[in-house]
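INTERNAL TRANSFER SHEET
From: sequence group
To: structure group
Subject: Pirin family protein

Please process the attached sequence and return the structure record in the designated field. Keep the field labels unchanged so the import script can parse them.
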Amino acid sequence: MNRIIHKAATRGHANHGWLDTHHTFSFANYRHPERMNFGVLRVLNDDQVSPGMGFGTHPHDNMEIISIPLEGDLEHKDSMGNVAVIKEGDVQVLSAGTGIYHSEYNKNKDKKVQFLQIWIFPKTKNVTPRYDQISIRDIEKTNQFYQVLSPYKEDQGVWINQDAWFHIGKFEKGKSDNYEIKKTGNGVYVFILEGSVEVNGEQLNKRDGMGIWDTPNLQVNAIDRARVLLIEVPMNL
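Return from structure group:
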């Protein structure tokens, strides 16, 4: 088993006034030669957007972009004609493919929005752009991981153009679960949304991350009440 640990305080940070953001991997003005990616996982940004503010219309191509709101309401508009609001309990995917323009704004004028912005390199380039979002409120479970993203459109959760799986787990203190790697050659990036856990013997706290590969599974034990995101991705670009 191989692993790499990224403590929350070591992430890149930028405060633009309207946007307070932390970067697990190199992004924008944050450059770290040893933090360019974890396999095909290229970006993991922890964004907080001020009331009524947001990202103006901008382009993307050949990237799978996943947004997971943690607090507040995020309004999305894109060049395919999609207009939607995502909030805590939703997962959104934008498969940029041949190219797309979109904007993201804090829907509310009186409270912040906090969300994870995740970019994954696609399995196939120049596909037709696609948008999807789901509510995970009806499928969420307690004290075990449940799937919110996969490579298959008929599977539970949203799907993307890559051999990747996302799972979320909400745990009570003292509870645990084992996660089995779905595909040989994949690794898992563990990101702690809330609380403290022990992963394969290593303690991780809120917003800490750990990448694990060359192992068939991993064990997550909740030290306190915790919420954990697992991002399984191919390790080879």
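Handover comment: The chain has a mean pLDDT of 97. The domain at 9-135 is CATH 2.60.120.10 (Jelly Rolls).
Transfer complete.
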